[in-house]
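Researcher: Final request for today, and then I'll write up notes for the group meeting. The sequence and the SMILES for zinc ion follow.
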Amino acid sequence: MQDQREQIKGARHHVYIPDGRFGLLLAATIITGVISTTAGVVFAVLVAMELLARIRRAAHLPCPRCGEPFGSKRRFPIGVGKNTCQNCGLGLEE
Ligand SMILES: [Zn+2]
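Model: Predicted protein-zinc ion complex:
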């Protein structure tokens, strides 16, 4: 159970680190934004979509105790959730 909690914590920490596709899109936004505002806006939208997808993945990781999504049950969560399971109350730091 501790491993799974560490996994949830790791995934949450990872959400805002610009690596992989997220990093490439962020770099593309900055570079194309200097050349063309329109292209910059297009890439900025892609960055936002990628960020929301990451938040969603992290928020929907299953709780090790009850198996329900740990952070949020919402279809489009606005954050990764609290440090306790929203279904059974299991804490990440217990
Ligand atoms: Zn739970």
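Model: The two ends are 11 Å apart (CA to CA). Residues 1-94 form one domain.
Researcher: Thanks, that's everything.
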